[in-house]
Amino acid sequence: MRFITPSFTSNQFGLLDLNAIALNTSPAFSLRREHPTGRSYSAFLKAFAEHFDIPVRCGIDVRDLSPLPAGGFELETTAGPLRAGFVIWAAGEFQYPWLQPFPGAEHCLHSSLVRSWSELPGDSFLVIGGYESGIDAAVQLSRLKKRVTVLDRKPKIDPESSDPSTTLSPFTAERLARARASGRVEVVEGVDVVAVDRAKSGWAIYAADGSVRISKTQPILATGFTGSLTLIRHHFEWDDDGAVQLTHEDESTRTPGLFVAGPMVRHKNVILCFIYKFRQRFAVIANAIANRLGVDTAVLEGYRKRGMYLDDLSCCDERCVC
Known about the structure:
Blueprint: H1 27-31, H2 38-51, E1 62-67, E2 73-77, E3 82-84, E4 87-89, E5 109-110, E6 124-128, H3 132-143, E7 147-152, H4 170-181, E8 185-189, E9 193-199, E10 202-207, E11 212-215, E12 220-221, E13 237-238, E14 244-245, E15 258-260, E16 266-267, E17 270-271, H5 275-278, H6 282-293, H7 301-305
Parallel strand pairs: 4-15, 5-12, 6-7, 6-12, 7-8
Antiparallel strand pairs: 1-2, 2-3, 9-10, 10-11, 13-14, 16-17
């Protein structure tokens, strides 16, 4: 993994490192990298936890949680039951791939399960899904001199949108342009894949318009993730589009005291799926819990001044004019 958001040591002139999760920290400074790898960012988080003396217990799976009659929760874990007054669910998405978006998807290989693109046999590939994961798969395969066709339901380079949550990030769009220039990558938009099946000569990919494509190699599935909230789905309300319903403090509307932090958080048309977005909601949750505990929240004003306390989401619908 490599971050698409760049890191830069900009704290000294009042701007946060896009990949920092707290004030006065910078992965660019700690790691000497503009686009940290997953392994290097893990080292940054470990150093962060040690520096701030944050108690972290690793190797524990949370299987479920139950509200207690007197308030708080009991968590069912592999280390035995744990109790907490509040729970912040921040278990992420990547390790929970969406493996069944349509019939026959089990014949495909999900992009998150690929350990190394160089290990995949074959000279040509078909990728289903054209957002960040799908385009990254195409770019990586093209670098290996493979030919790639990407099938996507809709265009991802929207000239009217400046939000990388709804269109390709500049970093990915730039890499895609280079891959297309090589002649090895083709992106076919407006193709809604509805099924995949085995065929005599490989795999058959069926689209809603009735078209059928044959891939000689196992199709790559890049249609996203179900997310960790599926593990405790019954503690939340969901809208018709499958988005979790949260209060203005990112608390479950069904289970008081259960908060959500991370890329799963969204409010109406505001999608907070990148670190530099969802980190702005950490202080909102901290403020909500602190107020209920009667703890002074004056320290959070420093976060507001530095753009890490986003409680007014009306500012998030602005678009670039050029």
